[in-house]
Amino acid sequence: MWHARWFAPGKRVLDIASGEGRHALMAAQWGASVVALENDEDKLETAREAASRLGVEVDFKAVDLEGPWPELGAFDAVLVFNYLDRSRMGFIRELVAPGGVLLMETYLEGQREQGWGPTSPAYLLKPGELATLVAPLEIIHGREVIEPLESARLRIVASVIAQRR
User: From CA 139, how far away is CA 126, in angstroms rounded?
Assistant: First the structure.
């Protein structure tokens, strides 16, 4: 809720690797104009059905996240959750409009020992790495945490809110 100001009416929001649209749908419910990129057609169909049920509009785009992306413009908020492609970070940073923010959260290397989640080093952050990936955006808030989930599972993540000044 304390991030809601980035999703107000008139704000442009991009959700990269949106999955079933959890973040994109919430931003749309708060009044933002939302574009969501996802490569899994089944997840996109689920997200579109949810948008219809909720009575919100989201521009869900089927995009090969490893291939070329369409021209997207700049956004007031760019959301990147549970997705890591170090080679695209420069491009992702450029999607943030002046005054806009990048909200990013993904798994740290320690997640591997939990027996679930990504296991490849390509998809796991080293401690302290996220701050370097979002630079030169200015970090407003950042954290690296171990969070308990249901079923006594743990989630080990790094997250950041970084702003283009």
Answer: 17
